[in-house]
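Figure S7 source data.
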Amino acid sequence: MQYHLPEIGAWGEEKYSLVRNYAQIFATSMKDKWQCRVYIDLFSGAGRSRIKDTNKIVDGSPLIALGIENPFNRYIFCEQNPDNIDALIKRVKTHYPGMDTHFVHGDANDAVDEILSHIPRFSPTFKVLAFCFVDPFKIDNLKFETLRRLSARYMDFLVLIPTGMDAQRNVSYYVRPDSKNVEEFIGKATWRNDWQEAEARGEKFGLFFIKQFCTSMDNIGYKYSTADKSVDIRLPDKNFSLYRLAFFSKHQLAHKFWDDVKKYSKPQLDLF
Ligand SMILES: C[S@@+](CC[C@H](N)C(=O)[O-])C[C@H]1O[C@@H](n2cnc3c(N)ncnc32)[C@H](O)[C@@H]1O
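Tokens for the predicted S-adenosylmethionine complex:
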């Protein structure tokens, strides 16, 4: 059966390798410590994609997370596009019929209550820990407020930050006084003042953007992450940085896992 199959660039595979390896290390290491491990995908896609200009079909983040050893106890998938969620539900039901899966159709920023309602309640005898993958296409897909609200539960985040393909490329649009997208993504209304100073120092907007985002995460308790610990995903010719994957946890041990994942996922991953 052929379901909807979006196209992605080849660089998506590097992202998948990091998600797979982190989900695997998280699930295996936490299984004896937390009674319930939950995987949340805020921007789930269709479950599979075709690599552009090839016939190669690859699993997207939902099927990757479902396919690991020692899988999560529960999976929550959110997706706005009707063709994508429809294909995702069919693929998940076909390939992982026995798994505890929940689907949320809609804008992830509007669906926080519904997503939270699917996360089991924590208690001293039933400890619940979530890993949330946040994989937007562009800045206007995500509002910081969404992460802030989700972070009321025990939750680690792996966030794709569109530093190059969007922030850097469209800086002239984002600095306009009427544009609210940067403010909503990084959760800081006064960022333009900081940008004036950063620009005067010669900082690039992409770097400024991720630093601001890390500071906002720090303000809600995710204190170990800095821009230089994120992974730079580049076009294959390496001349253009597309985006950065940044990991956020309130616990130092999880950062050790992230360091290991960066080492093993792809030896040539470039850091700053
Ligand atoms: C980069 S793709 C994610 C792909 C998926 N994580 C994977 O690994 O294959 C982004 C997805 O987010 C969806 N999307 C965009 N804005 C959204 C929003 N506000 N809420 C939920 N889904 C959204 C798009 O339809 C698209 O499928």
